[in-house]
UniProtKB/TrEMBL annotation:
The chain crosses the membrane at residues 46-64, 71-91, 97-118, 130-154, 160-181, 213-234, 246-263, 275-295, 301-320, 332-352, 364-385. Signal peptide: none annotated. GO terms for molecular function: xenobiotic transmembrane transporter activity. Its main location: membrane. The keyword Transmembrane helix applies. It comes from Marinobacter persicus. PROSITE patterns: MFS (PS50850), SUGAR_TRANSPORT_1 (PS00216). This is Bcr/CflA family efflux transporter. One of its GO terms (biological process) is xenobiotic detoxification by transmembrane export across the plasma membrane.
Amino acid sequence: MSHFYLALLLGMTVALGPLALDAYLPAFPDIADGFGIHHSDVGLTLSAYVATLGMAQLVGGPLSDRYGRRMILLGGLAIFAGAAVMVAQAGSLMEMSVWRVIQGVGGAFCAVSVPAIVRDQVSGQDAARLFGLIGLIMFIAPAAAPSLGALMLALGDWHFIFVVLAGYAVFLAMVLQLALFPKLKPRPRATTPVSTLVTNYLLVLRHKTTMRFIGIQVLCFSAMLLFITHSSFIYQEWFGLSNSSFSILFAANIALMATLNLINRPLLRHFHSVVLLRFQVLLQSLALVGLVTVVALDGPFWAVAGLIITSIGFQGGIVPNNMANALDFFPHMGGTAAALLGASQFTLAGGISALSSTFGGESLLPIVASMLACSVGAALLALGAPRAVQREKARLASKRG
């Protein structure tokens, strides 16, 4: 199977997550009016989904190692679709939140299966290139989701959005069953019983090199999530931009991420992914140093916006290179390693973002300083990454010898 064909199918699968998060954002006022609640209370359904999306990966990853990618991924799509139908029929905020939790379980099983499938098929530089292709396809989803949600609202009400999401999950299940799984090269099924899931996680947690890359992922994602959490405050309240201007600037982040993702692919022919990762993390930190400096000196808007777009844009190269290295040392436990990576990313970054709300909303400087602190932590971990990978590969080579 060609990399593009595999990336297209897996990218369509990963897109399910952003669509479930962002497609119904334009419907928040309608949902609030329908339930007779405050607009902000609808955000509980978003938090319920995100929290479950992170934690349920800790279960889905090892189960996919034990029972196979097909069963867990198709099972996740079935759970997602069924819960989406029930969300569409919810009559209260509590009922909707409960079904969103169940939908998050299905979404988590899908999300954790994708990097595990990549690790089953390729490793090293090839994995970094494939993750890059998947990321490039996936960038379309968060950019298009709010517009798609608005279109579905024009065709129906907020219930219709979740009916469409259920239909997309069913469509994905049929496509993957017919076009993906028959063409994947077989992998040996793990014989580890479910009772030793804790042992499997301990193996990953004790692997210092893998945990270094998980730390980089958490901190870089935290820097981006801090911006996303406060983006409306930064652009619309602090600088007084219109909704359309805010949308354009937000889309500029995705555009630069996609561009740097494309540039990263040919660079992988000449440089190791871990070297590119270190370089990109350091450049992101430098951009955030510039951002904090400009904000502290009360600099112009164009400088603030340009440095934000630049720093967030580097995620386009950081993510595929980092994921390839994080999963490289667990060929037979790719699901477990991917689960720990995904769960750590969502729960820890989500916690940092939630904590930032206690000081955000009144001043811009604490927000950008927090972004810089996360990025500096990632840079410190990235500085030693090449040597850590070399040592680990030398250790494995001597062990095999």
